[in-house]
Amino acid sequence: MQVADSTSTGLYNSGDWKELIVFGNQTVKSGIDFPGLRLKIAYAYMMSGNFKLALKNYDDILANDSYNETARFYAYLCNSYLNNDLAASYNAGYMQNRNGLNSFAFIAAGAEFSTKENDDINRGDASYSRISLSNRLSWRWQLEQSLAYYYQTIFRLSNSKNNSIDEADQQKEYYAKLSYAASAHFSILGAYHYVNTNFKTSVDNSNLGFIGARFTAPYFDLQVDMNFGNLDKKPIEQYNGKFTFYPTGNFNFYTISRVSDQHLNASDHIILSQAIGFKLIKNTWLESSVTIGNQDDYLDADGLYIYNAIDKTTFKCGETLFYQLSRHMQLQLNYVYEKKDDSYQSLNYDQNSITLGLIWKF
């Protein structure tokens, strides 16, 4: 143990993170394991950018000493770097020196605006806008809220006269998601989504629920969840499974795979979604995504986005640029191509969307 401690300390002081990781893992594998060694291994992983494996080593320390201040602080940082604010908050709850952190605080505020253009003469261009706010209610509870508005003009022929009628498809939405950290790696999610849809002479008030669970582990996150409720007077259920893979333990390269089983109008639909992201250059990330399947009334992103426009989407792909403008602000620029079916006529058309978003992290 003395040899392991002195050797690892020397590698730590010289900043030889790669050699420290190799030496530390070999030492632990040989049966020599103690908190001082684990702290150095974890820190070496963190300085190398592998936040997932750094967390694994900090967890090994915290399993025997849940109030280890150093391990808790760096576990808080690693989760923050992985955008897991709930797990970061959970670890902060065990810290004595919280550096000004409060159990109740704002986490992030955001806004996004999207314009959607299509080549169907019977459809006007659509727009979507949303503002959001998330805050910490306690060290284990987190609340996210959004207000959204969707608008599109629909052109169709009158039944009595051969002329066009312009009708607005308008949708107002309120969304709230409550998350609870049962542990540093297991959380329970619940959400409510209210939708007010105004089309023709009909006004529908829809209420949708969401419940799920999320588990995080070295190299991957796993989430299972369910959407349910009534959307425009139609009962809907959707069961989802999402697997996020971090082969480098960070956002330098990652994949997100999602499968959904939707029950709508007495029929089942399987919807598959795949995204791949990577760090392009400093402060810049790219994410490519594709979604296949019947996306009529499709519920995405924990029930935040509802694809219940007049015409259903049958295929969707896109590209998102993330750019860190400053320590607190991130810019998001997204392009999406959709293949859609006209609900009144037997034809397909293309839709192209551009979305600009800003997120401010407090």
Provide a short characterization of the protein structure:
With 362 residues, the protein is an alpha+beta fold.
In percent, how much strand structure appears in the residues?
Answer: over 45%
Shape: elongated
Q: What is the number of E strands?
A: 16
CATH topology of the largest domain: Porin
Q: What is the percent of helical residues?
A: 10-25%
Main features:
362 residues, alpha+beta, Serine Threonine Protein Phosphatase 5, Tetratricopeptide repeat, Porin, 2 domains, 14-stranded antiparallel barrel, two-stranded antiparallel sheet, 6 helices
Description:
The protein is an alpha+beta fold. The protein folds into two domains: 2-92, Tetratricopeptide repeat domain (Serine Threonine Protein Phosphatase 5, Tetratricopeptide repeat, Alpha Horseshoe), CATH 1.25.40; 105-361, monomeric porin ompg (Porin). It is 20% helix and 54% strand. Strands 1-2-3-4-5-6-7-8-9-10-11-14-15-16 form a 14-stranded antiparallel β-barrel. It has a two-stranded antiparallel sheet with strand order 12-13. Helix 1 (2-14) runs antiparallel to helix 2 (17-29) and helix 2 packs antiparallel against helix 3.
